[in-house]
Specification:
single chain, alpha/beta, 6 strands, 37% helix
Length: 147
């Protein structure tokens, strides 16, 4: 595995209908959106996930952890952790959880600024949220405030 600072990372914004995906190179320090994965009650098509893993060969997974504003965990937090555990179990790649509070709201604001019409079911912002999760995680690794 490459040294810290040189890893390729796949980031996920866990959701019950879609899972946002982004990829980042730790050395460059920014992330880019990939196509969101459809999910049924939070379960993706694992063959699609395997194809992503084969294509990108990540050194690390980062999954957004949807905490409540008081730092407590929610039902979605438990489900996101379970998703992260399944990623590790299936692919043997270390998975870290990252506080994702506010990422969806920020993703919607970014999308709106870019001309999004507001129909988030038709045009999801899950990939943008995954980018924000990864970039925030990268910033924390550098000791910077979250994005």
């Amino acid at each position: 595995m490459p040294r810290t600072g040189q890893r390729l990372i796949l980031g996920f914004d866990f959701g019950t209908r879609r899972i946002g995906v982004a990829v980042a190179n730790e050395l460059i320090g920014n992330a880019r959106e990939l196509a969101a994965l459809p999910a049924r009650d939070g379960i993706p098509d694992w063959q699609q996930v395997a194809a992503l893993v084969k294509e990108w060969q990540p050194d690390l997974f980062v999954v957004g952890l949807p905490l409540n504003m008081d730092d407590s965990e929610s039902v979605m937090s438990t489900r996101a952790r379970k998703f992260g555990n399944r990623l590790y179990g299936r692919f043997g790649v270390v998975c870290e959880m990252a506080d994702e509070r506010g990422s969806t709201r920020e993703a919607k604001a970014i999308a709106k600024e870019a001309g999004h019409r507001g129909n988030y079911r038709a045009e999801s912002v899950d990939g943008i949220a995954a980018v924000l999760i990864l970039e925030s995680w990268l910033a924390r690794q550098e000791g910077l405030p979250s994005v």
